[in-house]
Amino acid sequence: MIKLFRQLKPFSLPIAAILLLVFLQSMGDLYLPTLMSDIVDKGIVQQDRALIWRIGGFMLLVAGGGALCSIVASFLSAKVSMGFGRNTRSRMFNHVENFTLTEFDKLGTASLITRTTNDITQVQTVLTMMLRMMIGAPMMMIGGIIMAVSEDAKLSLIFVVVIPVLVLAIAYVGMKGLPLFKAIQIKLDKLNLVLREHLVGIRVIRSFNRTDHENKRFSAANRDLTDTAIKVNKIMALLMPMMMFVMNFSMIGILYFGGIRIGNGDLQVGSLMAFIQYAMQIMFSLIMVSMMFVLIPRASASAIRINEVLDMVPEITDPEVAVASLDQPEITDPEVAVASLDQPAKPELHGFVEFKNVSFSYPGAEQPALSNISFSARPGEVTAIIGGTGSGKSTLLSLIPRFYDVVEGEVLVNGTDIRRMTQEELRAKIGYVPQKAVLFTGTVSDNIRYGKEGATDEEIRHAAEIAQALDFVTAMKDGFNSEIAQGGNNVSGGQKQRLSIARALLRKPEIYLFDDSFSALDFKTDAKLRAALKGETTESTVLIVAQRVSTVMDADRIIVLDEGQIAGIGSHRELLAGCDVYREIVSSQLSEEEIA
């Protein structure tokens, strides 16, 4: 937690003001019992009303000043803690934005949400109390002991017995509670995971009549969290009765021995009353500290989890010295090199993609997902990737925007290894349509404009028209201003895909990546969309991952993957003649007449 609190440097001035105000409040609170002792011993006993009014008025001023200091300190404490929470959330969010998919897989989405919200709130709450209690309580305790000793040193020996007992009780409860608070945060992650899966997958759950099963899963996670919370609260509940028990017995001891000393003439009544108030201040200071120990273990567990995220270094980082990609690439593929001799150089061509002996494995996987992949994709051409389930099609495509880094080999864009380019520069060249279409809350226009900030309405309309989305968008109640629900739940799967494609088209990138992005479209819409795309992508490189043969058969180049390796590269006719894997895929989808 100390490491996290180093981020409080921007709030140094308010924190200094809080320390000063808490100090003044504590001094005022410590001075009041002495003034009350003077009223009793000098005013009431000697029947000096003027003295009583004078000291009483001064007490009111001291109390009012202390109250004002307390109010301002509370306001500043809240402002500092809220600002710290805001900054920490922003810092964590920005850091997580740089994570690769590997880091997301390690931590999990549910855990990241819990850490960004609940964990930071726990630390924020403790910080508010620490700025007041952890500073004020020691001041009150030390000052109370000094003032109590000044009133009667012998009577103060009671604290020699009482304070160690209270400190041991607080330490015991803190040691027992810390492991349980860590467990609570982990179990809260689990509860959030189950809840998130239930809400996201509600359609599947209901369609398979698994509501009861999911209720049991949630109840089990909820019960586990509840049992742990009850256990830790039972331990914490012991603290307050123990504190009150010790405090009350201390009062009995003070009154008993104080009465004896008054009887012997060694102590005055006013001094005993002041001593009792100082004893109460000392005890309540320890109670305040004990309350902190109830919260600190949980906040400490939360701080560890927050630091775990902030200390995690993304596997994929930008190079210290980035290399700009070339407009006219150095072509190493023989087939492409020969073809390029037949046409004049076109400096304006860009978006050349090349894989050179690329291999990739997911962390912890026994076998590589891709092995020795080499091919080129040129501007103005459509390169299609097809293969069976689990053959590595989507994995291959995800290497181009550098969602993962290759284990061996190189991925080149415009002749430059993408690891030598900044991620921003690389991804600015790419229009990516994921396998699972993702829409955000907002209007249809907002979702399409996500591909190009500042795009005009005409550009948005044109992109929607090419993506075959114009008809259904204009049919919606408010057209392009129609609201998209969370997750795009108020549009169909095919409509989601078309809006995602429109988003990529609006960007006019050098490279288009379609990861099985036509799977939810009917054959007619699929064909119309691919025909419209040809006119839009004449100067861009297009890579399409697809399951349907009809989607890829007109591509300039088809890459057939089988168990992470290239089984064949060529046109539809060439692969039918020379690639068994492709022939099997085609025969499973098309009739003999269609193949012919």
UniProtKB/TrEMBL annotation:
Domain ABC transporter: 353-588
Keyword Plastid on entry: no
Primary site of residence: membrane
Ranges for domain ABC transmembrane type-1: 16-298
Bilayer-crossing regions: 52-76, 130-149, 155-175, 235-258, 278-296
Cellular component GO terms, alphabetical: plasma membrane
Keywords, ordered alphabetically: ATP-binding, Cell membrane, Membrane, Nucleotide-binding, Transmembrane, Transmembrane helix, Transport
Stored InterPro entries: AAA+_ATPase, ABC1_TM_dom, ABC1_TM_sf, ABC_transporter-like_ATP-bd, ABC_transporter-like_CS, P-loop_NTPase, Type_1_exporter
GO molecular function: ABC-type oligopeptide transporter activity; ATP binding; ATP hydrolysis activity
This protein's record includes keyword Disulfide bond: no
Protein's membrane topology: Multi-pass membrane protein
Localization, UniProt: Cell membrane
SUPFAM superfamilies with a match to the protein in the record: ABC transporter transmembrane region, P-loop containing nucleoside triphosphate hydrolases
Name of the protein in question: ABC transporter ATP-binding protein
